[in-house]
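Students often ask why inverse folding is considered easier than folding. One informal answer: many sequences map to the same fold, so there is more than one right answer. In these notes we will look at a single instance of the problem. The structure comes first.
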């Protein structure tokens, strides 16, 4: 059974945003706190609005920015 195209687009967009944010934070670690604050604020807004699925995605995005498992391995 094929996955829902809209769900695939959402996951792809989230993955791309995480990659971009990760590279930016690697190049300039001072950006990390700003990304975290924005993700936290957006999570609260979405959760208060009742859009729990979107809030969960933003929450996962914010956690992934600081999770060592998502850091690029050094060569």
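Output (designed amino acids):
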């Amino acid at each position: 059974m094929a996955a829902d195209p809209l769900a695939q687009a959402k996951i792809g967009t989230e993955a791309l945003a995480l990659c971009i944010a990760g590279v930016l934070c690697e190049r300039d670690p001072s950006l990390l706190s700003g990304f975290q604050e924005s993700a936290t604020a957006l999570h609260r807004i979405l959760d208060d609005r009742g859009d729990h699925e979107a809030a969960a995605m933003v929450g996962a995005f914010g956690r992934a920015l600081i999770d060592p498992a998502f850091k690029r391995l050094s060569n």
